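User: What would this chain look like folded?
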Amino acid sequence: MKLLSPRKPIADPIKIITPDPVEAPVVPVAPVAPPAALVHVDAAYLLESQLVVVGWASPGLSLALAHEQFAPEARCVRVERPDVAAHVGLPSGAGLGFVLIVEAQAQRPTPTLQWRDKEQRLLGTRALQPQKCTELSAQELLALGIAATPLATVLAPHGALWQQLIDRVPAAQVACTAARGYLEVAAACRQSGDAVVVGWTVQAPGTAVWLEDDQGTIHSLAGAYRRFRQDVQDAVGHDFIHGCRDAGFCLRLDGLAPGRVLTLKALTTAGVHALGEVQCGTLPADPVAAARWLFGLSVPMAEMHRRVPLFDSAVLEPLLRRRQLAWQELPVKLRELGTAVADPIVSVIVPLYGRTDFVEHQLLEFCKDAWFAKHAELIYVIDDPRLVDGFLTEAETLHRLYRLPFKWVWGNANRGFSGANNLGAAQASGLHLLFLNSDAFPQKPGWLEALVEVLETRPEIGAVGPRLVFGDGSIQHSGMEFMRREELGIWINHHPRMGLDAALDPHRELTTMRAITGACMAMRRADFDRIGGWDTGYLIGDFEDSDLCLKLQTAGLDVAYLPTVQLTHLERQSFKLLGQDEFRTRVVIYNAVRHQTRWGAFIEQGEQRPQAA
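Assistant: Here's the prediction, encoded as structure tokens.
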């Protein structure tokens, strides 16, 4: 598009400039217009579904667009054209320029410009050849002038053209009646650039609403977790009968830092309205601390499973990955006590968190087992920085007392159950691995040998676990299955005979199960490496063991329960998902959603083995 320069000769009174260098002839439909009836077209564009014509015309003429006999309603916006005024000798260019906007008619591809006098007599027509555009130049944007506002309201929000135009739409000078909203809280992680914002918005159909930061970056609300807000319904529901159903939103954003300001904006024909504003606080970089902040945001427990994949996972998974990458840079401290078994058959890996007093009870049982002493490598993994200093002395004392060789390793970070097991496995040299909780104790010698024998004689079995009982002898674990909690929208790991007398266990020999607990689980080192070890993407705990079992089954291996081996496990007496600390319950839901996102199809199919991805 080329704007006129002063003192340049005026074009023919009804000559129209189009993007096509070959101009179509004028179609006279009335007596020739007087010399004052000048019409000039600078350009015609097809912008998405909108036909836009830019040009100038003499005062007093009315303009319209038509497709043969069909004349769709067009918006005609008059704009300032001082360049035209200078050429024709007028004191002002106000109203000389025009921008026509109309919905394009695909079935009528050749639009026609019409102009009429004050008596609505048709003075002339011109066939247009619109140019399809996906981007506008700075000069073209300038020529649109104030027409940017009505054009932006009919283009698809957040598209490339809309993004170009919205910067040129002025701030509205009147109250917004087409949208209402409020930003309640926002927080950003300085280390990762992840941010979250929480608020609500309601709007009339067709009204664009978005977030914009103080650097002018626009953030769409598409993909946000939305929910019904009774408080919003009570406050503005009478004005937005159909717009309050999912007013509340939680949204993750990229590229923000604490201190940045976010504004909730809406677009109407009056311009851009600011509905609300909030300054970003600080979101912790530690995933657990961040989860405490996120899970504190109000949402009914029954709705949590719907929010997790849309919001919580989007925030926490990058933080979890960032933490895992940081582990690779941390030094690992390893201490060996006594002369280790040469070429051990099995490495026993025991994570320690919160307390170390159970170590002595385990050593007391291990040292009674001749097969264990001859063929097992024992590795304790400290997973709690509070335990490190005390265990330095305690480990030396316990080794002198029980004379059983063992290693302990500290990875300079709390890595969680899966991360600690993986760290222990990295230090292991056995052909097989036995993962054991620190509060699980053998009841008699030979337990480990029996589990290893299954691995060495049954190649189709990838993991095997024993019966676990509570201190009173009742069953804690005899295999796991998956149970649906409809009120929470999740599948959980269920111990079907928990709390029953061990004599009521129907299994008397090795039995294939859907899953077994990680509190005591034996598997081949080669299979462990093949499936990539324990998944460290779960938050704090839960579901890592069933995830490992399902990965083995994906690799074509079974998991089995061996009831002839029994250990005492001092885990809590029941698994109560509801009624616990609320944060802990939300952690379980978060992990359950992650687990069923990966394995939901298999879980719902019943006994069928999961297929490799």
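Residues 1-35, 573-579 have pLDDT under 50 and may be disordered. If you want, I can go into more detail on any region.
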